[in-house]
Specification:
3 domains; Glutamine Phosphoribosylpyrophosphate, subunit 1, domain 1; 6-stranded antiparallel β-sheet; Rossmann fold; 45% helix; alpha+beta
């Protein structure tokens, strides 16, 4: 089964330019792929797509609409669903766009990346799904619109000729990935979740065709809410199970355990699960995965990741992503998916999204403690702060020292407070970056982008706003990229039941207290599934597929040589100061290996990625 998925294209919105036929090949080659055998060339446009889905491209000659679509969309209109089943989703999208225009998105759900060209109107439309499972990158050069699911492919178009973007490299080091709308290449951008772009010869506009609606349902009894939730969960899993052999990631947390139990029910056979372990204290969670596997009678497979596996994965990760990507849990994700593939599984169900839509991240409860201080009257804060901050010998008195720390953090508003412990806030930026690099970037932009996502929601509740921010940053920009790309590299598809549109919309009907109450997370979720999940799963603290890279790097093993070589190479690029890299290594070696290992991993991946992408179009 082919799991390679990429969509590339360009269109001149002003004139027929008869561009050379090898442009599409250059774009596909940037991702190490051959151009599809049946690309579409219209003189002013060249389009092509590769994917496991059939009929990814359609040209409706009756309406003059061309469409490309990758993903697993769901059509709420029966006629469109029937056409998609008979002729492919691209054909259905072309026909429905001709009939509805941009109202097409009212009935197009699931995950998709979509490109449409209306020859008669001379305009192009790009869009991605509501949750950002898929992606779309683009560049506008005069009347030319170039687009692809890969930023690297857009950069390879000869009219774009994009070079590496220092601003985005800074944002990578701040966020450990390149957050949308930026990409690692200058002039190339990404769409945000639920965003569509409309381009004509004169201009380009972007709008959100959907927004998460936070409207707590105060009328429906709790018992009925729980029943609806259980039905929607089952439906979400059913929609992701087809003729392919399906398995599930199992970490032992509430999300993966829920998917495991429902997969067994839906398929009528023991769910095939795949779990990762580490021989490192505080990182191995196989015991929890085993609890779930026993509870649901799953057909469970386990795999222990070692330092040798990490060393093997270092170059693979750098090559797999079209932008630098620093989430180290890509390693266990890859090996988990690879083991599934070796055992005959062709599609994996992942639990991503439960935290972001049902209130599962620890910071939601933690920030509530600080928000209580923000709720005090200004007069009371003005009285308390001098008393605490100026208390004699306060730094030597534990309660006063803690109170000072609390006030300092609480005084920073959300969402900025979420980045209090960011590595780039630990030292002056002039100590971290080379002067010329630092002078070329806007160091405030990462926080500005976070504020935009945080406040771009109708809810005034901090928990809802943090979840909205996490939908964009933690989920779409980070976790979905991690899982999707590593599964593709391992040769399997991945599907996300918790991102089902009906389930996501239902989450918006829950009150804040049903999501987070004091230090309790996922309140409604756990209550609704208390008779379904194991008790140990309900009460366990959040963990996930963390990687003990820092601990293993501290040992004299297979990771030290590639790590030191990568940091040495990075020190010569004029980005990060060599003395800062030495300091970071010393701090890692002298203690807190896990903590400092995170930033070392991020820097290593940057260098390995730059080695492969220091010129446009390099694969």
């Amino acid at each position: 089964m082919n799991t390679r998925r990429i969509l590339c294209g360009w269109v001149n919105l002003q004139e027929r330019d008869e561009a050379p036929a090898d442009i599409l090949q250059a774009m596909f080659s940037a991702e190490g792929a051959d151009a599809p055998a049946n690309p579409l060339r219209l003189g002013q446009a060249g389009w092509g797509a590769i994917g496991p889905e059939s009929s990814t491209m359609a040209h409706d000659t009756e309406t003059g609409i061309v469409a490309m679509l990758l993903g697993r969309p769901i059509w709420t209109n029966p006629a469109s669903a029937a056409q998609a089943a008979a002729q492919g989703h691209a054909a259905a999208a072309a026909r429905r766009y001709a009939e509805l225009g941009e109202r097409l998105f009212d009935e197009l759900q699931g995950n998709f990346s979509l490109a449409i060209y209306d020859l008669r109107q001379g305009r192009a439309l790009l869009a991605i799904d509501r949750c950002g499972v898929e992606r779309m990158c683009f560049a506008r050069v005069g009347p030319l619109l170039v687009f692809s699911t890969s930023a690297r492919a857009v950069a390879a178009h000869p009219a774009v000729k994009a070079s590496l973007d220092h601003q985005s490299l800074y944002e990578y080091l701040y966020c450990h990935m390149v957050p949308s709308p930026g990409t690692a290449f200058g002039g190339v951008e990404k769409l945000l979740p639920a965003q569509r772009l409309l381009a004509t010869a004169q201009r380009t506009t972007r709008h959100f065709y959907w927004a998460m609606r936070f409207a707590p349902d105060k009328q429906t009894p709790p018992e009925a809410q729980r029943e609806t939730f259980r039905q929607l969960l089952r439906q979400a899993v059913e929609r992701q199970v087809d003729e392919l052999p399906v398995g599930a990631f199992l970490s032992g947390g509430t999300d993966s355990s829920t998917v495991t139990g429902l997969l067994g029910e839906v398929s009528g056979a023991p769910a095939r699960t795949f779990s990762i372990g580490f021989d490192a204290e505080g990182f191995d969670e196989l015991d929890y995965a085993r609890v779930t596997a026993r509870h649901f009678g799953a057909d469970a497979a386990e795999f222990y990741v070692t330092p040798e596996h990490v060393a093997e994965a270092l170059p693979l990760i750098a090559s797999a992503y079209d932008e630098p990507f620093g989430n180290a849990s890509a390693v266990p994700t890859y090996f988990c998916a690879r083991i599934a593939r070796e055992r005959g599984v062709r599609a994996m169900l992942a639990g991503d999204g439960g935290d972001e839509f049902f209130g599962g991240n620890v910071r939601y409860a933690k920030q509530g403690v600080f928000e209580r201080y923000q709720s005090l009257t200004p007069g009371l804060r003005q009285m308390l702060e001098p008393l605490v901050m100026n208390f004699p010998f306060g730094s030597a008195i534990m309660p006063v020292r803690k109170a000072r720390s609390y006030i300092r953090q609480a005084s920073v508003p959300l969402p900025d407070r979420l980045e209090s412990y960011n590595f780039l806030h630990r030292d002056p930026l002039t100590d971290i970056f080379e002067p010329e690099f630092l002078a070329a970037v806007d160091t405030e932009r990462p926080l500005a982008m976070m504020r935009e996502a945080y406040f771009r929601t109708e809810s005034a509740e901090p928990v809802d706003r943090m979840m909205h921010l996490d939908h964009k940053i933690t989920l779409a920009d980070n976790d979905l990229r991690k899982v999707s790309r590593m599964c593709e590299a391992a040769g399997v598809e991945v599907r996300f039941p918790f991102l089902d549109t009906d389930l996501v919309n239902f989450s918006g009907t829950l009150s804040v207290a049903q999501k987070v109450s004091g230090n309790r997370l996922r309140v409604f979720f756990k209550e609704a599934l208390s008779d379904f999940l194991p008790g140990e799963t309900i009460t366990k603290s959040k963990h996930g597929f963390g990687l003990p890279f820092g601990l293993w790097l501290a040992q004299d093993g297979p990771l030290r040589s590639p790590a030191t070589a990568a940091l040495d190479g990075l020190s010569k690029r004029g980005i990060v100061r060599a003395d800062y890299l030495r300091k970071l290594w010393q701090e890692h070696s002298s203690g807190h290996a896990s903590y400092f290992g995170v930033m070392i991993w991020v820097l290593i991946q940057l260098e390995l990625w730059l080695q492969r992408n220091d010129r446009p179009g390099a694969a």
